[in-house]
Amino acid sequence: MQGKKIAFIATDMVEEVELTKPWQAVKDAGGQPELRSIKSGEIQAFNHYDKSNKYKVDKEISSARMDDYDGLVIPGGVGNPDTMRMDQDAVEFVRSFFEAGKPVAVICHGPWMLVEADVARGRKLTSWPSLKTDIRNAGGNWVDEEVVRDSSRRASRTTCPRFARSSSRNSGRACTRASGRIQPPPRSGARAGVPCRGRGGGSSVGRAPGCGPGGRGFKSRPPPLAVA
Amino acid sequence: MQGKKIAFIATDMVEEVELTKPWQAVKDAGGQPELRSIKSGEIQAFNHYDKSNKYKVDKEISSARMDDYDGLVIPGGVGNPDTMRMDQDAVEFVRSFFEAGKPVAVICHGPWMLVEADVARGRKLTSWPSLKTDIRNAGGNWVDEEVVRDSSRRASRTTCPRFARSSSRNSGRACTRASGRIQPPPRSGARAGVPCRGRGGGSSVGRAPGCGPGGRGFKSRPPPLAVA
Q: Residue B24: helix, strand or coil by DSSP?
């Protein structure tokens, strides 16, 4: 993971913990996360239906090139992929990782992006349970498991990507799917709407007080993850 | 419509205007709307991603019988059908209207309920654009039109139900689909979280100051509606 560049794609209503936890796992493993969005400026993260912090977008997806990254993470939050899937640049960006056989980690509602890119077909996937029918209708093999690893179609693609299965305890715990609701993470203490800016790193997401993932854990029910 | 009983099904994150406008249209036409939900108490309506008013649930869906109603309305709001589609009682309730050939009006993200009930197959439908692929993968004929009427499979089922196509100007305008984002309705002036209770009617949804649909209109972009 050392020096590897990982694209995170997200927009408003991204589930905060599904952005911040994998982000921190990438950093802890020596990788370089970068936030791409369909909009510039900041995106509004949520804890389920409650607004939480805002996160600065590094670059827009429209200018993104898959060749510049070693992997892709797609967090959930119901409104996040619901909006991103209508953006052709975002859909093409996702598809390009599958075509190149690069590792992709998808969490919660994120697999709608795989449905939209028509790359769910023939894959074993899990997700937030509401997506079950959409994934199956798209030709995916949806299973009710905490973690799914799929490598059936891309020999070079790891199943649960190493950057999301690193030795980091937080990272490992992010690779699970719960059958119930997402439990919001512990209160951040940060005011909603306060931009979170990175400290001491190339990242613009993250470690301002209360904004970063430090110290947070999936104490009860971890968010779902589908790894394609 | 006089005396007809119309079931509205919704839960948290229902798009407020998609609940209140058709509701008022039913009342204006002499019908009796009733709010059924997968939970008791109140549901939290949204204006896109902003919390708005709460609405009192008349009864839970689990005790609902299709025979007790003359028609069904399924409002949108991304989190609303995303949650309801995981409730088997809600899905069966929707399916029963199609099996009986009773009129159903579906708005915005509402068609996910038709996908889940497997009643989209072979039907001409529209929706919020993000659902296009899910509807097509479910066998539906998704079209990018403002209003869709479908009667191909159920001779007894009207296309755009009369209660949603009444002479009410507001109602008629609710029967349209926009290609862009939903524009939130004018500010209600009511504080979020304040329960809205009906006035002078059997309904519990409604007309408290700022809560009801009175005076609101789709000034620019009306919400999508799929009529199945």
A: helix
